[in-house]
Amino acid sequence: MYELFEHTADLGLRATAPTPDALFAEMAACLVSAMVEDPARVQPAQELQIEIAGTDREFLLFDWLKELLLRFETDRMLFAAFDVRIGEAGVTATVRGEPFDPDRHTFAHEVKAITYHELKVVEIDGAWLAEVIVDI
Predict the structure, then answer these.
(1) Domains of the chain (ranges plus CATH)?
(2) SS3 133
(3) How far is 105 from 131, CA to CA, in rounded Å?
(4) What does the DSSP assignment read for 16-79?
(5) Residue 5, phi then psi, degrees to nearest 5
(6) Where is the Archease domain (predicted)?
(7) String of b and e for 51-76 (b: at least 16 CB within 10 Å)?
(8) Taking the C-alpha atoms of 11, 16, 22 and 24 in order, what is their torsion angle to the nearest 10 degrees?
(9) Which of 11, 12, 129, 131 is geometrically suited to a Cys-Cys bond with 5, CB 3.0 to 4.6 A?
(10) What does the alpha-carbon distance between residue 79 and residue 99 come to, in Å, rounded to a whole number?
(11) What's the distance, CA 102 to chain centroid?
């Protein structure tokens, strides 16, 4: 489960999930929902592999979301499906999506950057919670 929350002039992303893998997938979906009004219209037509090295979960989350935002900025790719594995060396993911199509994808927010402000990844009573503020 994920949600957006207001934060001063920025926007917050929050997700909960039963595992860190699922949490990173939820946060990716949350990012897409911040970017386009109807993320269900994004089709999983093309597959891409992403690997990010690291061991700190918070920094990995930051780098993961930053990589997805970079793929949008450079390749105009939006993603609809996320198969994420967090291991000892970092994140390995298969993502599926399609190029931005202005006829089908309406912008919700222009996400300019992922920030470290109030970034957290914590385990609470056997479930995982993540929060990050994005610059819009």
Answers:
(1) 2-135 (3.55.10.10)
(2) strand
(3) 25
(4) EESSHHHHHHHHHHHHHHHHBS-GGG----EEEEEEEE-S-HHHHHHHHHHHHHHHHHHH-EEE
(5) -140, 145
(6) 2-136
(7) ebebeebeebbbbbbebbbebbeeee
(8) 30
(9) 12
(10) 9
(11) 21
Angle (deg, nearest 10), helices 20-35 and 57-75? 40
Instruction: Kindly state the tokens that stand for 125.
Output: 């009573």
Amino acid in the structure at residue 124: I
Tokens 């934060």 belong to which residue? Answer: 7
Tokens of 11: 């926007």
Cα–Cα distance, 111 to 132 (Å, whole number): 12
- Report field, pTM of the whole predicted structure over 0.85: yes
List, in sequence order, every residue forming a beta bridge with 129; answer none if it has no partner. Answer: 16, 122
